[in-house]
Amino acid sequence: MGEKPGQGRKEAWQGESLRTRMKRVKVYRLEDNGKWDDQGTGHVTIDYIE
After folding, report:
1. pLDDT number for residue 12
2. What is d(CA 39, CA 27) in angstroms, rounded to the nearest whole number?
3. 8 Å CB contact between 45 and 18
4. What is the mean pLDDT of the chain?
5. Do the beta carbons of residue 25 and residue 41 sit within 8 Å?
6. In terms of pLDDT, which residue wins out, 40 or 14?
7. Is 19 helix (H, G, I), strand (E, B) or coil?
């Protein structure tokens, strides 16, 4: 109540650790021969910049 639109959401994620904000992804590397090499699982973060 009384918050500016979007303000509460921004403050909510600021309290999260980097680990909880990171998303798990499958990582592949394209080899010179055109085949994909499975590199396993990694993490990615996304930062929204206006």
Report:
1. 52
2. 5
3. yes
4. 76
5. yes
6. 40
7. helix
Q: Which two tokens mark 33?
A: 């021969």
Tokens of 4: 């500016």
Instruction: Kindly report, residue by residue over 5-28, the tens digit of the pLDDT.
Output: 555 555 555 556 666 677 889 999
Where exactly are the structural domains of the chain? 22-50
42-45: Cβ within 8 A, 24+ apart: 45/18, 45/21
Distance CA 42, CA 44 (A): 7
Q: What token pair was written down for 15?
A: 């309290």
pTM: 0.44
Q: Do residues 8 and 15 lie in contact, with contact meaning Cβ atoms separated by under 8 Å? A: no
